[in-house]
Design goal:
By secondary structure, the chain is mainly α. The longest helix has 29 residues. The chain is elongated. The termini are far apart.
């Protein structure tokens, strides 16, 4: 039983060389729409009066909350004059 000449596996799987230095490559045939124009959003540099008041109110309320927590903690933990008795 003769099967023919023995061929190396590497010769069977060898790929053909690719010519990367062709004089002119074919252009893409895919047609695309041009990218959409981006319109710049107008930035409001100055906040409205309501925004200014809301920020000021938030800062004042935050400072008041920190003050209340500080006084409460010092009143509970003070060894001499307890503001809040633990009876």
């Amino acid at each position: 039983m003769y099967a023919g000449p023995v061929i190396k596996q590497s010769k069977i799987l060898r790929k053909q060389p690719v010519a990367l230095q062709q004089p002119h490559a074919r252009p893409s045939r895919i047609r695309r729409d041009p990218p959409a124009r981006v319109t710049e959003k107008k930035v409001n540099a100055y906040p409205s009066e309501r925004e200014v008041w809301m920020v000021a109110l938030g800062v004042v309320l935050f400072a008041l909350a920190i003050t209340v927590v500080t006084i409460a903690v010092s009143g509970v933990t003070s060894p001499t004059g307890r503001i809040f008795p633990l009876n």
